[in-house]
Amino acid sequence: MKNATWILGLPFLAVSLAACSGGAAGLGASSSASSSAGSSSSSTAANGTSMTTPLGQVAAARLLMQGTFGATPDTVNSTAAQSYSQWFAGQARATPSLTLASINSNENTDWSPAWFYNVVQGNDQLRQRMAFALSQIFVISGNGEPLGENQHNQALAYYYDTLVNDALGNFRQLLQDVTLSPGMGEFLSMMRSDKPNPATGVHADENYAREVMQLFTIGLYLLNPDGSTQNDSSGNPLPTYQLTDVVNLANAFTGWSSAPVPGSGHTGDLAWQYDTNETTPMVAYEDHHDTDAKTIIGGVSLPAGQPTAADLKTALDTLFNHPNVGPFIGKQLIQRLVTSNPSPAYVQRVTQIFNNDGTGTRGNLLAVAEAILTDPEAIAAGTSKSYGKLREPLLRVTALWRAFNAYAYNSGKQENDPELLLYANQLFNEYPLYSPSVFNFYRPDYQLTGPLTAAGMVAPEFQITNEATLVYTGNFLQQYAYQYVDSTGTAYAGPDYNAVSALQPTSVVLHTAEWEPLAANPTNLIAQLNLVLMANQMSAPMQGALLGYANSLPAGTPAATVVAQTAELVVSSPQFAVQR
Asked: What residues does each domain of the chain span?
């Protein structure tokens, strides 16, 4: 079986990567443009997309590929019968799937198995997908100090749950909740940032003030609504802020620290100095806040004598209302969900919805998600070979697991599978809330050396893609495709049937029951794999290669084995790796 994987994979890999380098197989900007996007409250959005017509299977599969952690046969069918308006409304109503409760107050319990379970089994798929995208913009990390060493799992879980709760809410509330999250307070050292005191050499910590502007809201350069930079007469981009803006914003952010830990008996300065409550928003300590007058970005004045919360409110309101936020955040969300190189017109349409969702509301993230996923470029981009993005390893894994209803062998949960944690941490170069720095696993402006860079295009996910990660990801997908339970309850592990000894109680396994009837007709099986895993984007040569393989399996091969091994070839292929 391994030889079949390499026979199918290597030629496609060479062709796919060469085409990507030429800008023709999945990373370029579409040239299409249309009028500005609108709200889904009407039957037809301002961008021309019908919001009330049933989607049909292919459009449904495409929406699920972009806006969730992967399609399933059931979700393709149920979404196909819905309109865009119905699907988004249903996703907005879905109860958020959270992670903190899984820790059960045990700080040494890893929170990430709950993350895997939620993104694979949760019904709030749009919320989960948006939260993951936001986690790569509003970065905190358990990779090293100050949140590493498996001692801050409550902080990580609380922070991720904050993103989940706010993912379809308002950006202003998200900005507030992120700012006062104890995990962010520790990670970027706003927690216990004290007012300046020249006599003792104390000055406000500038980490959060700098990053909330550079990475979380407005970026380094002034932008037009379409995401292009505003330049001076010499063609140089105009900066959004100066060093004095960082210093004054840092002073405005002084005076915040942990809420008192229940049972510690601490109040006031004792709580400020010693307590670290990682599951409650930070609170204000007025004696540690700088009350001098301050002028922050945009020339906004903070009067002398203002309390801690008032300075914070004005500062965050100022950042939220900056015209850069729409294009800066909107473009990155497009990159995470749809395409690495959105056209300026696409970015501008999303910016307009961020600025005003059609009801006069700014920062409505549900409306932004709708605008991104219902834009004509997102819907029709599959017809152009110059469009798309590389699926990061975690999204390739979750797509397989969702398609086959995967969960732990003995409990129905995504357990702390040591193999999974090892691969994701060390071999994928990404893991939820485990970035090597505040700049995420990869930069949104990363350029791959070669024709893509010459064409002025970016390829963010290629920053964590190299010979090692390609091999390790392929091996991981092969291993997990071979771990499955069939319709009779019989477990399999590996290409040699029934090697159940390879499974541990926590091993994540696929379930093939609903796929097995298709095994008798490989053409139908491949068509369904194409729809669910690739939104019907599989090339004819790839379909032919898969059909040849499936037909070559020995007579009497169990239906579940035909399904699992054919699916493994799909998810190991470069065509699957590039989302178009």
From this structure: 1-28+390-580, 186-325
